[in-house]
DNA sequence: TGCGTATATGTCAATTCTGACATATACTGC
DNA sequence: GCAGTATATGTCAGAATTGACATATACGCA
């Protein structure tokens, strides 16, 4: 179990409906992770479509290759904000970004 | 100018195409802000639709009323991740979340 | 007026994220 | 085998975010 969930469980103080709360949190967390994965995929596609290396993109973002690798891997240390910034940094259009949000989500509807 | 942009400008070291870089960053930043505003709006709607107070939602999220207020105001200290978590915490469906991403974006297409 | 409820704003310690670096792996051409 | 290029993984100091608290504002109602 990751730190974010633990924190939320702690914050909730395990008050009521423990099992239900647990399932609910898992559910929300799962949706978040799926969204992140979807965006990470879209980023990789956007980058490769433009034939940019991770290093190229890193420079455009003012970041490092290693972080770009983590972004594309949807590493836990990466926020949605950062993935979106990366997608925009590839030069992706607004449309491309929008599609990224809806892309793989269908798989889990 | 906010800290995030400053940081990116600093990171880029003002190397080449200063003016162009500046405009590009403004553009990407603008898109990010618009996305955040769009999501914040969707959150407010999702919450009110379910007749939850900010306090109610705060409890569900294991957070505080003041932070929920900031989330809905798309405060600079609020990440997209947090807004999405808030939307999910209202009990919004995957569909509702998806619409949130595409909602106001049309305005700026 | 005073009270209750809902929302907004400022601050801050503790937690989390980020860029950077070192290093590892994988593939290509020589 | 050995460069060169691209990508992946572990670590960490410095920077940013978060929940919490105090407090302020706004509205309705008695």
Query: Which chains share the greatest interface?
Result: A-B, 28 and 28 residues
Radius of gyration of chain A: 16 Å
Tally of helical runs of chain A: 6
Mean pLDDT of chain A: 80
What is the number of E strands of chain A? 0
Stretches of chain A where pLDDT is under 50 for at least 5 consecutive residues are 1-18
Structural class of chain A: mainly alpha
Structure description:
Two copies of one chain form a homodimer. With 109 residues, chain A is mainly α. Chain A contains six helices and no strands. Chain A has helices at residues 3-12, 18-49, 54-61, 65-72, 80-89, 94-102. In chain A, α2 (18-49) packs parallel to α5 (80-89), α2 (18-49) runs antiparallel to α6 and α3 crosses α4. The model of chain A is unreliable at 1-18 (pLDDT under 50). Chain A binds chain B through residues 7-8, 10-12, 28, 31-32, 35, 61-63, 79-81, 84-85, 88-89, 94-95, 97-98, 101-102, 105, 108-109, and chain B through 7-8, 10-12, 28, 31-32, 35, 61-63, 79-81, 84-85, 88-89, 94-95, 97-98, 101-102, 105, 108-109. Chain A binds a DNA duplex (30 and 30 nucleotides) through α1, α3 and α4.
Which terms summarize this structure?
mainly alpha; DNA-binding
Short description:
The structure is a homodimer of 109-residue chains. Chain A is mainly α and 109 residues long. Chain A contains six helices and no strands.
């Amino acid at each position: 179990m990751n730190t974010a969930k633990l924190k939320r469980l702690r914050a909730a103080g395990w008050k009521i409906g423990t099992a239900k709360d647990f399932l609910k949190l898992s559910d929300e967390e799962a949706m978040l992770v799926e969204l992140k994965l979807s965006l990470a995929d879209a980023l990789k596609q956007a980058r490769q479509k433009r034939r940019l290396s991770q290093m190229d993109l890193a420079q455009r973002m003012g970041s490092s290759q290693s972080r770009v690798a983590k972004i594309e891997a949807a590493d836990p240390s990466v926020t949605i904000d950062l993935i979106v910034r990366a997608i925009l940094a590839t030069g992706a259009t607004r449309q491309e970004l929008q599609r990224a949000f809806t892309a793989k989500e269908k798989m889990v509807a």
